[in-house]
């Protein structure tokens, strides 16, 4: 499975405000997964979580995550990114969630009451799928 | 987090041929995630994998999985299902992948050369998101 840097086609996909799912590991060792906003910024993935989120605990205990980004125009194009949360910081002034809300909804983030945490994810490996085929090899025509 | 049975609204979402992401645990303990077809059948989730898939090894070693299904019409509606692969069987005659291909593409599965494995997933817990809100509590307006 290839390592960064990502090719231009994958970066172009990541730059779009696409649907994504982030997977992490619960403290009991089972996988957690949930839909998420993200931003590809400076070669890392930015995620934002309400400070009360259970998965903030999971990530503090085990920073390994996987993020699958589906092309919003054609979800048969997708990229899965495998890496680690390398930084968690309070989203002071909600600047990061505002950036995400602008990216996805073209509006500031409406909820100003709940504190949020920003997570930065470094990517170790990635896998790109296009037209039912994995770039690394043709072994089927269905997603996964 | 609620347990099955799933409410009618969630079952209705699962019946549509929606994009989904399945997360599993690699043997090194890190999460894997990839886009997938699925079918909700008889209260379980059916997945299909090319027999050569690495994650078939992961699942045999650790059957815990998470599946996030995004509403193809509005991905701010999503359900995450947490459970275990309870059965893995060869897809004899490709009947299961054909059913998935009919569901998603309205055609039989084109690749007849590569053997596939069907996985059945029992659901232990689930979480439903709608209009930026989790059914279990309102704590934000962003996905995750």
Structural commentary:
The structure is a homodimer of 144-residue chains. Chain A is an alpha+beta fold. The first copy, chain A, has a single domain, classed as Roll (Pnp Oxidase, Chain A), CATH 2.30.110.10. Chain A is built from 3 helices and 8 strands. Chain A has helices at residues 8-15, 54-61, 95-105, and strands spanning 20-25, 31-36, 39-41, 44-50, 64-70, 78-90, 116-130, 133-134. In chain A, strands 1, 2, 3, 4, 5, 6, 7 and 8 form an 8-stranded antiparallel beta sheet that branches. In chain A, a hairpin with a 5-residue loop joins strand 1 and strand 2. The longest helix of chain A is centred in the last third of the chain and has 11 residues, at 95-105. The relative contact order of chain A is 0.23. Residues 133-141 of chain A have low confidence and may be disordered. At the A-B interface, strand 1, strand 2, strand 4, strand 5 and strand 6 of A face strand 1, strand 2, strand 4, strand 5 and strand 6 of B.
Describe this structure in a few short sentences.
Chain A is α+β, with helices and mostly antiparallel strands and 144 residues long. Chain A has a single domain (8-132), classed as Electron Transport, Fmn-binding Protein, Chain A (Pnp Oxidase, Chain A, Roll), CATH 2.30.110.10. The first copy, chain A, is 19% helix and 41% strand.
Which key terms come to mind for this protein?
homodimer, alpha+beta, 8-stranded antiparallel beta sheet, 144 residues, Pnp Oxidase, Chain A, globular, 3 helices
């Amino acid at each position: 499975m290839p390592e960064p840097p990502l090719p231009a086609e994958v970066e172009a996909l990541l730059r779009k405000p696409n649907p994504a799912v982030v997977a992490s590991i619960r403290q009991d060792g089972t996988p957690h997964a949930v839909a998420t906003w993200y931003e590809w910024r400076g070669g890392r993935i930015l995620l934002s979580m309400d400070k009360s989120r259970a998965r903030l605990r999971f990530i503090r205990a085990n920073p390994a995550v996987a993020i699958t980004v589906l092309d919003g125009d054609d979800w048969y194009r997708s990229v899965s990114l495998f890496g680690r949360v390398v930084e968690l910081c309070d989203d002071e002034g909600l600047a990061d969630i505002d950036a995400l809300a602008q990216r996805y909804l073209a509006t500031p983030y409406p909820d100003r009451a709940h504190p949020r945490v920003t997570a930065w994810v470094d990517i170790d490996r990635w896998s790109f799928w296009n037209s039912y085929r994995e770039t690394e090899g043709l072994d089927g025509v269905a997603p996964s």
